[in-house]
Design goal:
alpha/beta, binds nicotinamide-adenine-dinucleotide, 274 residues, 9 helices, Rossmann fold, globular, seven-stranded parallel β-sheet
């Protein structure tokens, strides 16, 4: 039986994290590297990916590589997974978001969100699974999708496109887990609540083109959260670390909320104390 400290030892493994130049992706790549996994920092913004990879490699004695990858571009995805055929852990983190109420939501914006958040997860998972098939070695390989609490219920108004995309990530997670389990592979999703990552800060600071007061919306989310705070990138990274590690060995097909309790709210008034 493995000792506790061995359970978090990821030496001799490799991980690829999409959208890892900043935000959750960076925090995830950093924690995986700390556990001893060699890491590929993949991002649509190469220069940012290179800078983030450098920061991680200065901190931990693992191999840290970086690459340019648009997860929704099929030829790029195929190329990257043939360049890195020995990845053990794929973290599908890259994602985009915006705020528009449905009557102001253009079909172009709807497609943009679906393209990255859904097609991107599909393409990377498919190519990852293919490399395991051709290696004949799926055992112990893990995919973790960074979904959202929006994979369970809408978090706020202005999110029809985003909520749809994250519900689809929930479907991908469950469907992939069923198909890949016989090959020894596990597929899970982490469902974070709101976190002030670089991307989220940009959204809050830019204000919604649709006139939604996003700053007020996010302050409201923190207030409504039973733990009384937003989520941090490291909260998400620790959940990913748990799921890919041998501690998660029997866990597949799950949607794990990391949300300070916001999805466990009683219906309004239901539990009001008298
Ligand atoms: N921040 C939140 O409150 C929150 C909550 C729940 C879920 N999420 C999800 O977590 C993930 C990360 O979000 P974040 O807040 O860290 O965002 P972020 O904007 O801070 O970082 C996202 C990174 O992904 C990269 N990226 C964007 N499009 C890409 C593409 N097509 N291919 C590859 N890389 C791409 C960006 O360059 C950026 O480096 C997303 O899937 C998001 O939907 C975020």
């Amino acid at each position: 039986m493995k000792q506790n400290k061995q359970l978090l030892d990821l030496k001799n493994t490799s991980s690829l994290v999409t959208g890892a130049a900043q935000g959750f992706g960076f925090a995830i790549a950093r924690r995986l590297a700390e556990a001893g996994s060699n890491v590929v920092v993949a991002d649509i913004k190469l220069e940012n990916a290179q800078k983030s990879a450098k920061r991680i490699s200065e901190e931990f004695a693992v191999v840290v590589d970086s690459c340019e990858l648009d997860v929704a571009d099929e030829s790029q995805v195929i190329k990257i997974f043939s360049r890195y055929p020995n990845i053990d852990f794929l973290i599908n983190n890259a994602g985009v978001f915006s705020n528009y109420t449905v009557t102001n939501l253009s079909s172009e914006e709807f497609d943009r969100i679906i393209r990255v958040n859904v097609r991107g997860v599909f393409l990377c998972s498919r190519e990852f699974a293919k490399t395991k098939e051709s290696n004949g070695n799926g055992n112990g390989k893990v995919i973790v999708n960074i979904a959202s609490v929006d994979a369970l219920n809408p978090s706020c108004v202005g999110q029809v496109h985003y909520t749809s995309s994250k519900h689809a990530v929930a479907g991908l997670t469950k469907g992939l887990s069923v198909e890949l389990a016989p090959k020894g592979m596990r597929v899970c999703a982490v469902c974070p609540g709101a976190a002030l990552t670089e991307g989220a800060i940009e959204l809050v600071q830019s204000g919604s083109p649709d006139g939604i007061d996003i700053a007020e919306q996010w302050a409201g989310i923190a207030k409504q959260t039973p733990m009384g705070r937003l989520i941090s990138p490291d909260d998400v990274a620790l959940a990913v670390l748990f799921l890919v590690s041998p501690m998660g060995a029997s866990i597949t097909g799950i949607l794990l909320p990391v949300d300070g309790g916001i999805t466990s709210q009683p219906y309004e008034g239901y539990l009001e104390s008298k």
